[in-house]
Amino acid sequence: MCHIISGRAEVSRADGKMRELGPGDLLVLPQGWKGEWRIHETTRKLYMIQSAG
Question: What's the predicted TM-score (pTM) here?
Fold first, then answer.
């Protein structure tokens, strides 16, 4: 889980689907996610990682 605190970015999945992110957005990435982050402004994020098991 990733909560965007400030800034602007976009994430692109391996299949090319893109999502723009800004303050207040919440993003959940599954284990094994592959893609690319493009940062448009300095971005502060809060991550929470949960391991299986």
Answer: 0.81
| Residue type for position 53 | G
Give the pLDDT band (50/70/90) at residue 53: low
3-state secondary structure labels for all residues of 1-53:
CEEEEECCEEEEECCCCEEEECCCCEECCCCCCCEEEEECCCCEEEECCCCCC
Put the strands of the sheet holding 26-27 in their side by side order. Answer: 26-27, 2-6, 44-47
Q: Each residue of 33-48: pLDDT tens digit?
A: 899 999 999 999 999 9
